[in-house]
Specification:
The protein is built from 16 helices and 14 strands. The chain has 411 residues and is α+β, with helices and mostly antiparallel strands. A 5-stranded mixed beta sheet has the order 1-2-10-7-3. It has a 3-stranded antiparallel beta sheet with strand order 4-14-11. The longest helix is centred in the middle third of the chain and has 32 residues. Bound molecules: protoporphyrin IX containing FE.
Length: 411
C-alpha cells in the first residue's frame, strides 16, 4: 500500500450520479495493491469475490471489468464498446493518435487488411533465420558469464533487434524509441493532465521520428515493413499522411514494449520453477505445443474501451463516454476457464485474451509467438539449470503494459 500522506496525491474524480456506491473501489491501474508479488498475482487478489463491473475514482474515474468473461465480451463487441479512446486516464487516451487502434469497424477494416498482409504467418516464417540469429548472438554473449540481468541483457534487446531489422531501422535509435514506448504505456504524473502531457510528448516523439523515414520510403521498392505499409492502399487510395504516421508509430510501440516485458515475466517464473524447465528442455514438441500456455500465464496489456451509447450491461447502467478498463490478465487467470491458473501447465489447452479479441486482436501475435519459442529453444541449448540470484526481488510496475525489471539470474 502507498502512504497517501507522503507520496501519491493522484487526483480522485467525483463519482458520477449513475454509479452506485456499492460498486466503488479504489483500484489504481498504475500502482496495483499487492504488485510486489507480481502483476498477475495482484490482479487475482483484486478480483476475488468482486462483481463483474466496479468503478474507481482513480486515473480519471473509470469502470473496470472484473471477470474474464466480461473482458472477452467487451473486446468482441465494438458496437457497444468503442475503441474511440483506449488508454486511461481518458485525457491521456484522447492524445494517443496511433492507427488503427482507435478506429472501429468499418473504418478500421482496410487498415487491418493492410497490416495482416504484412504480418501474416507466411511473412513471419520468412523471418525465422533473422530472429534466431538475434537470439543466438545474445545468448552466446551471456552464457559464459554464469549470470545476467535477463531484463536488461536479453529481454530489452532481443525483440528490439528483431523489430528494428524488420522495419529497416538503425539499432542505435532503439533506446530512444524504447523510452517513448515506456512514457506512453506507463506515463508519469500524479494527475490525469500530467499523465496526458507525458503521453502526448511520447506520441509526438514517435511521430517526429517516423516522419522523415516515411517520406524517404514512399514510392520505394524495399522489402522492409515500413516500405511495405506506406506504399499499401486503403480502399484503393493511398493512405492519408496523418494515418501513415499513426500506423508506423503504432508498429514501433507494439513491437517494442510488449514482448520485452512478456519475456521477463516468463523468465522470472521459469527461474523459480526448474521442474517446469526440466519438462521441456530437449523436448521441442512439448515446448512448441506449450508456448501458448506461456501467453495465457503472462499477459501484459491493460487497456480500455469507451461506452458507445447509454446502456445496461450486466445489471449496471453505463453512459456514453464512460471508460471501462479491460485487463487482458483476467480471462487467462480465470479459474473457471483454466483451473489452478497460476500454475504453468505445458499440457493445458489454454483459454486467454492476452492478445485481446475481436477486430483489433493483436496482428503481431505470430511474431510474438516466434520470438518466445526461439528464445526458449536457444536459451535451453546454451544455459544450464538457472535460478534467480540470491536476494533478487524482481520489480514490477503495472500500467497499459506492465513491466518487470531486476531479473538477475545465475547458473
Ligand atoms: C507479447 C506480445 C504482445 C502482446 C501481449 C500484444 C497484445 C496486444 C493486444 C492486447 C492488442 C489489442 C489492442 C486493442 O484491442 O486495442 C494488440 C494489438 C496490436 N498489436 Fe500486439 N501484442 C504483442 C506483440 C506485438 C508485436 C510483436 C507487434 C508488432 C509486430 C504488435 C502489433 C500490434 C498492432 C499493430 C496492434 C493493433 C491491431 C489493430 O488495431 O487491429 N503486437 N496487441
Amino acid at each position: 500500500m502507498t502512504d497517501t500522506a507522503t507520496i501519491d496525491p493522484r487526483a480522485r474524480a467525483p463519482k458520477p450520479a449513475h454509479v452506485p456506491d456499492s460498486l466503488v473501489r479504489d483500484i489504481d491501474m498504475y500502482a496495483l495493491d499487492g504488485i510486489e508479488q507480481g502483476v498477475h498475482e495482484a490482479w487475482l487478489e483484486i478480483v476475488k469475490g468482486a462483481p463483474d463491473l466496479v468503478w474507481t475514482p482513480l486515473t480519471g474515474g473509470h469502470w473496470i471489468a472484473m471477470s474474464g468473461s466480461a473482458v472477452k465480451e467487451i473486446y468482441e463487441d465494438p458496437t457497444r464498446f468503442s475503441s474511440e479512446v483506449i488508454f486511461l486516464p481518458k485525457e491521456a487516451g484522447e492524445k494517443y493518435a496511433m492507427v488503427p487502434t482507435r478506429m472501429d469497424p468499418p473504418e478500421h477494416t482496410p487498415y487491418r487488411k493492410l497490416l495482416d498482409s504484412a504480418l501474416n504467418p507466411a511473412r513471419i516464417r520468412e523471418l525465422e533465420e533473422m530472429v534466431r540469429k538475434a537470439a543466438v548472438d545474445l545468448v552466446e554473449e551471456i552464457a559464459p558469464r554464469g549470470e545476467c540481468d535477463f531484463a536488461t541483457d536479453y529481454a530489452k534487446k532481443f525483440p528490439v533487434r528483431v523489430f528494428m531489422a524488420l522495419a529497416g531501422l538503425p539499432l542505435e535509435d532503439a533506446p530512444m524509441l524504447a523510452k517513448f514506448a515506456e512514457d506512453m504505456t506507463r506515463p508519469h504524473g500524479n494527475t490525469p493532465e500530467e499523465m496526458a502531457a507525458c503521453l502526448d510528448a511520447a506520441n509526438q516523439g514517435f511521430f517526429t521520428y517516423v516522419e522523415p523515414i516515411i517520406a524517404a520510403r514512399k514510392g520505394g521498392a524495399g522489402k522492409d515493413l515500413i516500405t511495405t505499409l506506406v506504399n499499401g492502399s486503403i480502399n484503393g487510395a493511398s493512405m492519408p499522411h496523418d494515418k501513415e504516421l499513426g500506423l508506423i508509430a503504432l508498429l514501433l510501440l507494439g513491437g517494442l514494449d510488449t514482448v520485452v516485458n512478456f519475456l521477463s515475466f516468463m523468465m522470472i517464473y521459469l527461474a523459480r520453477h526448474p521442474e517446469k524447465v526440466a519438462e521441456v528442455r530437449g523436448n521441442d514438441i512439448k515446448l512448441l505445443r506449450g508456448v501458448e500456455e506461456l501467453f495465457r500465464r503472462f499477459p501484459v496489456v491493460s487497456e480500455a474501451r469507451m461506452v458507445a451509447h447509454d446502456q445496461s450491461y450486466r445489471g449496471v447502467e453505463l453512459k456514453r463516454g464512460d471508460m471501462i478498463l479491460i485487463p487482458t490478465q483476467l480471462p487467462g487467470l480465470d479459474a473457471s476457464e483454466n483451473p489452478d491458473p497460476l500454475d504453468l501447465d505445458w499440457e493445458r489447452l489454454p483459454r486467454h485474451a492476452t492478445f485481446g479479441g475481436g477486430p483489433h486482436r493483436c496482428v503481431g501475435l505470430h511474431l510474438a509467438r516466434m520470438e518466445a519459442t526461439v528464445t526458449l529453444q536457444e536459451w535451453f541449448k546454451r544455459i544450464p539449470a538457472f535460478r534467480l540470484a540470491d536476494g533478487c526481488n524482481p520489480v514490477y510496475q503495472s500500467g497499459i503494459i506492465s513491466s518487470a525489471e531486476n531479473v538477475r539470474l545465475v547458473w
